[in-house]
Amino acid sequence: MNEYPEEFAPELDEAYAEDAFDEAELAAGDGAAGETAVLGEGAVELAGEEAFFPRWPWLVSVSGTYGRRRGQIDEEVRVDIDGRYPQYAVSGTVRMGLSSRVDWAARVRRTGTNTWAGAIFYKDGALGLFPYTAVRVRVYRSIFSGQRRVVVTYSGPGIRRSHLYVWRSGTFRDVEFEFDTVAGTTAITAIQTHDHPNRPPGLPSESLSIERVFERAGYRVAKSGGDGIIPIAGAGPNARWSDMEMHDAMQAYWSRFANQAQWSMWVLFAALHESGTSLGGIMFDDIGPNHRQGTALFNDSFINNAPGGDASPAAWVRRMKFWTACHEMGHAFNLAHSWQKSLGTAWMPLSDEPEARSFMNYPFRVSGGQNAFFSDFEYRFSDGELLFMRHAPERFVQMGNADWFDHHGFEQARIAPEPRLKLHVRLHRDLGHFEFMEPVIVELKLENVSGEAQLVDEKILEETDHLTVILKKRGGEARQWVPFARRCYTSKKTALNDGEALYGSLYLASGLNGWDLAEPGVYQIQVALHHHDEDIVSDPLTIRVAPPRSYDEEFLAQDFFSEDVGRTLAFNGSLYLGQANDTLREVAGKLSDRRVAHHCRLALGNPYTRDYKQLVLEGGRRGMTSVQDDDGAFRVKKAQPDEARDQLMSALLEEPKEAV
Predict the structure, then answer these.
(1) Quick one: how far is CA 441 from the chain centroid?
(2) What dihedral do alpha carbons 53, 58, 59, 64 form, nearest 10°?
(3) What pLDDT is recorded for position 46?
(4) What are phi and psi of 7, to 5 degrees?
(5) Is 231 helix (H, G, I), strand (E, B) or coil?
(6) Those residues with Cβ within 8 angstroms of residue 370's Cβ, 6 or more apart along the chain or in another chain
(7) CA neighbor of 121 nearest in space, from 110, 133, 130
(8) How does pLDDT run across 153-163, given as a tens digit for each residue?
(9) Using CA of residue 53, residue 55, residue 56, residue 62, what is the dihedral sign?
């Protein structure tokens, strides 16, 4: 058996010392004899099997799914300690009746003959069903019947319980695929691993299918129906496919289509996406209530063109199409790109893996480019990805369950192999802490890191059409920030020398989605800038919104977090939205010592700095009528320097450090 990786030993040793496995207590009766007393029925047989176990430990893998059912309680335990790509983890699900459920996961290491133990690092759901903090797994394998069983001992502060689980499956979950192909296009669903000479020296020579890739990831794979041909007429007069057309085709041709979560996925092999040859594949299904059910591959895109001078161009193309299919299907399992793991997830913190030889990395992104990638690529997912696929709660992974982008981001970003520009998202404060009701504004910095001058649009950081901003609250769903207004400037280039930067700011507190950053909690902000044919993706920025400090704040927040107040702050003032201005005055007066007061006074004073044009309907709005019929006319309100000075002095100069 493999030992548990040593890098996890310190955290597990700490867990043992706290409450998990007191050796004196084990010796007093929680070993095999203790299990006999707890388990009763079947314990004698287990004791007999254990006598033979140490002599033939290699007979059969014990990794897989075990279960037990007692009345309304159904339990499942997934043991991942041997076999292909073991993750040295044990996870489980406890279901009680129709509505109560808890999921848990533990990292384990070998602690004795046929025994693994470790701390529980994750729990989700009805936690009252599962008060434990550590587990110990003892494995039994019969040389007579081949029956595999495990005894799992759960422990926590002052509690300990053991259960016997019987073998259910050699895999962790079941999934089914269906491959459909547009007429005139070929589906590449299997390759010969030695067809291309650039490969790892020890890579076995075999015929490798997509199904086998996911079986090795821990799944029992089935086909949901006969793979079909979609007539090209179904695409309409345009042979290039849009996301909506593919979604419609999925509903029409996929035999398992349903607006519900299910372990089933549709894969379409087509020629081109409407965006052109630069898109090789896509997890397109983020339309409607159930995401991640469909992916598509585009055979006439860049993946059909081997690099010049390649030793075996036909094999390169087959391998690239196969890799792209597995990559996009990985997204349907809710896997992010290898360099985007740190966006945050309700499952567990993940580290970026920019050099991973995984289906979820781009070959050209690693050091040395795609030649270096494939020379060390073993047609697998990384260990972190396998841990997620095998042991994360079902809803995070299952197709049609948690929304795409709920736990990862920027699935379609096209990132250059050697980026010339770097995008930073930052704050003008030491800590990313915001007071309750304080609007969140961030600074963008676009830096030239190419070593030579670059031409960029002067207003590139102000045209929001170039920007995609993702906001994600810890434990919640990710949302795209949608501004109240979009600006389009004429293109005017400026030279950005090496090391120089452009700067801009984004008011992210509110937008067309409402107040995205209002509730107390921890958020991550990440921005992608589309520049020419590439996407420049920033590192994520973490901020914390504090809870309300008083009853007054909670009470005022009910009027403050409105669309009109959000618009007034976003546009630095309005003389039309009178109720919003009343709210801003009240907040500035009652919360004068809070940072939100600076924002309120700025928005109240700014409109008075100049003559202000306002459309007035003398006859009142009479429904769907013209402005002329309503006696509409523009009126000009003269600037009021004294009012502007009072508000702006208070907003900007009384506490300049806070104002900045």
Answers:
(1) 24
(2) 90
(3) 45
(4) -65, -15
(5) coil
(6) 307, 363, 364
(7) 133
(8) 999 988 999 99
(9) positive
- Scan for tokens 């929304």, then name that residue: 403
Strands 521-531 and 64-70: unpaired
Q: What percent of the chain shows pLDDT beyond 90?
A: 36
Both ends of the chain: CA-CA distance in Å?
60
Torsion of CA 275, 291, 397, 227, to 10 degrees: -70
CA distance 102 to 123: 7
Q: What b-and-e string marks burial along 620-629, b requiring 16 or more CB atoms within 10 Å of the CB?
A: eeeeeeeeee
| Residue among 220, 187, 190 at smallest CA distance from 206 | 190
Residue indicated by tokens 């502060």? 157
* Farthest CA pair distance, the chain: 98
Q: Distance between CA atoms of 565 and 573, rounded to whole angstroms?
A: 9
- 586-601 pLDDT tens trace: 999 999 999 999 999 9
Beta bridge partners of 78: 65, 91
Encode pLDDT of 461-497 as tens digits.
887 667 888 888 887 777 778 787 766 555 678 899 9
The pair of structure tokens assigned to 358 is: 């995984």
Copy the structure tokens of residue 111.
Answer: 């602690």
For residue 163, the model assigns a pLDDT of 92
Three-state secondary structure string covering 136-199: EEEEEECCCCCCEEEEEEEEECCEEEEEEEEEEECCCEEEEEEEEEECCCCCCCEEECCCCCCC
Q: What are phi and psi of 563, to 5 degrees?
A: -65, -40
| Token digits of residue 426 | 């930052």
Q: Which residues of 586-618 are buried (b: 16+ CB within 10 A; e: fewer)?
A: ebbeebeebbbbbbbbbbbbbbbbeebeeeeee
**What is the C-alpha separation between 88 and 1, in angstroms, rounded?**
11
Tokens of 308: 């010049």
Q: What helix, strand, coil percent values describe the chain, rounded to 5?
A: 30, 30, 45
Residues in contact with 33: Cβ distance below 8 Å, sequence separation at least 6, in sequence order: none
Three-class DSSP labels, 314-370? HHHHHHHHHHHHHHHHHHHCCCCCHHHHHHCCCCCCCCCCCCCCCCCCCHHHCCCHH
Query: Cα–chain-centroid distance for residue 80?
Result: 24
Taking alpha carbons only, the member of 558, 567, 575 closest to residue 616 is 575
Locate the DSSP E strands across 374-466: 421-426, 433-434, 441-448, 454-457
